[in-house]
Structures are given as C-alpha cells and as structure tokens.
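Reopening this one. Same input as before:
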Amino acid sequence: MRAQRSALVLASALLVAGPAQQAQATAFEKAKFVFHLGAAYYAFNTWVWRPYREYRFQTGAPGQRANIVKAGVALAFAAYQVNTAIGMTRNTQDPFLRRIGSLLPGFNKSLTAVGNDLKRGRFNEAGIQGLNRQVNTLLNTAERQGQPIRPVAVPIPGL
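Same output, byte for byte:
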C-alpha cells in the first residue's frame, strides 16, 4: 500500500513538473533568442548605423576606409547572430519565436549582402538604409509581441 502511494505521489509530481519544465524551457529559449538578436542589433547600431549617421563613410571622412571595413565585420557578426536565432525558430511551437523568426531569413540575407560590400570597402548607402528599415520592423514587431529587443554589448573580435 505504501509503495503504491509513493508511486502515485511520484507520478503526480512528474505530471505537474513536466509542463512547468516545458514553460521554463520556452522562457529560456526566448531569452536566448532575444540575446542573439540584441547582440546583432548592438553590432548594427554601434558599428554601422551610428557611423553612417555621422557621415563617417563619406568620401573624405577621416578613417573612411577603416570605418567601412569595421562596419562590414560588424555586419558579418550580426549575420552570425541572426543565423543562430533562425536556427532556434526552426522547430519551435512558440508564437513569438515563429512570428519574429519569419522575418529573419530575409534580414539575414540583407545583412550578409551589405556586409560583404562593406568588408570589400564598398559603401552601399541604399543597403544600409534598407537594413535600418528592416531592423525597425523587427524591433517594432518584437515590441508588439511583448518581447522588446534591446542592444546587448558583446565584444566583436577585431573591433
């Protein structure tokens, strides 16, 4: 009788703990996902968008070539972070991850294309402006879904 009772208590505990562990895994997935996108946003905002707004990529700007190449490296890092986030959305059932994840493949292609131009020293103004529009769409969508994406300062090798 006592063994049956212990088995029943254990089975009940597992039934209750199972969904709780799944909910925690989803919260952890979201936090990890938002971290990767925050790191990508930081790289874009710090090394691409801000220097672009300060005219550091224009002909004759001090350190123009170095700024362009740094921006390219930063976009390569951002593309890696976005690619990692895309991988997290492939088999998820979470509506937030699915919704934001649907925006990421096109964004990742844009990051890679503009980043490759910049790494080669070619300034692509229209590409940078397009990336900024995509970033704003991504940030606004995440905000509406209740998961704001904030910049996450991470060291980028070489910058």
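So the earlier flakiness isn't reproducible anymore. For the record, Helices lie at 2-53, 64-89, 95-101, 104-119, 125-144.
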